[in-house]
Design a protein that fits this description.
Elements: H1 2-19, E1 28-31, E2 34-37, H2 38-44, H3 47-53, H4 57-63, H5 69-80, H6 91-101, H7 106-118, H8 127-144, H9 149-166, H10 170-184, H11 188-201, H12 208-211
Antiparallel strand pairs: 1-2
Helix pairs in contact: 1-5, 2-9, 6-8, 7-8, 8-9, 8-10, 10-11
Amino acid sequence: MKKSILFSLAIALGICLTSCGGDAKNGSSASGDSLKDDKLSSFMLGGIYFIQGYGGQNAVNGMITATDKEEIVESYKQLLELPFKPEDGTSGPQSTLKSMWGINGKEDLVKTLGELKTGDVKKSTHKAWDYARLVNNACMGYAAGYLTAEETEKFVAEVLPLAKQNFKTWQAYYDDFNAGRKEWGGDPSGDAEFATATTEILKGDKSIYQILPLN
């Protein structure tokens, strides 16, 4: 379900991602060669899920023809910020949250997001694994109609300072994410896939993780 939503979004954004300019506004700033966008960075905590949903980093690279860093940032804002939309249908996200997390409404979702934020969720000792799932679940909750856009952005934004405190780089963050997946043991066949995917999203001129450092 998630992939179909993201691929639909990718098609809808295709023209803009390959031809529109943009000035990386809405909370971003440039200073010399350094760019900063805390809102986008907060969604990047779960970016591995979203980029994989688009078909992986190579597919995303093909969507973005811009070479200017600020324009690339603007393209990623469209791709990663609130990538699941309630107008695409709420039944799919609701079913996914129920089957995978036992979430049946807003109260359940908020409780789970709190547990992921504090590290109280079962079978987890890796903060990045928790933070990435929190961001993904919050976005799914928005698509399910359980959260408003503003509520979703607030939950996601609250995690960024914690990630910055616990991890110096995106490499360290996604190393811990992969360690958390492996320790979880729920999908051993997917561990190698995600290990490869997290390597891919961290390299290349069009990698947002190269353009916007964690710290």
